[in-house]
Amino acid sequence: MRHRKTLYLFIIPALLVIGVFFVYPIILTFNMSFTRFQGIGKATQVGLKNYDRIFSRDRYLEAAWVTVFYTVIVVTAMNLSGLFFAAILHRLPMIRNFSRAALYTPSMISFVVVAYVWQFLYSPLNGGINVALTKLGLGAFTQNWLGDPNIAIFSVAFTQVWMFTGFTCAIYLAGFAGIPEEIGEAGRLEGASSWQRFRYLELPLLGPAITVAVMLTTIGTLKTFELPYILTKGGPDGATRMLSIEIINNLFGQYKFGFASALSILMLILVLFVAFIQNRVLRDRENTQ
After folding, report:
1. pLDDT tens for residues 244-257?
2. pTM for this structure?
């Protein structure tokens, strides 16, 4: 009993931090979402009007759809590219450490720095990408990468994939490190090719790593704000306008604290719902393999 009480004493500081910096702000945000408040003066209770406004206007439903669509693109590309590089580096131990560090470096750079660098590269006039395509005789492929509503979201998504592929690669390399070497050796003795060993031996054993990588990248991408805001400000024509941008615009642009709080609660529910479904599906996948 004394040992158990000692353990509880060590847990208390963590619970206090979670309560003060996580639970309490969520409760305040939830309460404020039922008010009209501009940051000064007294908040006015408006009931469900903020939520009614969200679901009765296409603008905010479209922002939710753009957020989900963007997340699907980024999470899929980020995990496939991370798994691809991890599978290669797992088979090339001589360059593994150097390559892993090189791939991980972009994720340590500030979002703001990355966004401004890629904003220059995407520039339609003298941007690095269009200039390179022109020099290579591929001028027909030059685009207004951030100004075309049809490709802007893919351009922003590519920037985030480039930035965090090394992060997912590190997770999958850790998963590969946990696979017993005897399994790969047995596959080689049976004459299995490198692809066959990956598909039928390694991939099923990477279940826990896949769960962690997909969950972390999904939650992080759903909350994305800096890259689309700096690169496009949510444009062109709302093509990259996500819930996070709507929240910031209403909060700091129009000082609608109550409505921004309602959008934040909607975003929280979306993140929790997607995370719950993903966790359920991925855990079931692990148990069936």
Report:
1. 999 999 988 888 99
2. 0.90
- Identify the three-state secondary structure at position 63: helix
Query: Are the C-beta atoms of residues 114 and 159 closer than 8 Å to each other?
Result: yes
CA distances from 170 to 30, 75, 94, 144, 166 (A): 37, 15, 16, 33, 6
- Between CA 154 and CA 171 the distance in angstroms is 24
Residue carrying the six token digits 């080689």: 188
Residue 136 belongs to a domain: yes
State both tokens at 20.
């003060």
CB 240 within 8 A of CB 228: yes
Residues spanned by the domain of 149: 50-288
Q: Within 13 Å of residue 59, how many CA atoms lie on the same side as its CB?
A: 12
Query: Does 15 fall in a domain?
Result: no
- CA gap 214, 194 in Å, rounded: 24
207 DSSP 8-state letter: H
Tokens encoding 199: 């598909």
Residue 158 falls inside a structural domain: yes
Both ends of the chain: CA-CA distance in Å? 40
Distance CA 37, CA 267 (A): 20
Residue 44 exposed, middle or buried by CB count within 10 Å (0-12, 13-18, 19+): exposed
| Nearest-angstrom CA–CA distance, 206 and 29 | 38
Q: CATH number of the domain that 234 lies in?
A: 1.10.3720.10
Does residue 274 lie within any of the structural domains? yes
Q: How many domains does the chain have?
A: 1
What would the pLDDT profile of 123-152 be if each residue is shown by its tens digit? 988 889 999 999 999 888 899 999 999 999
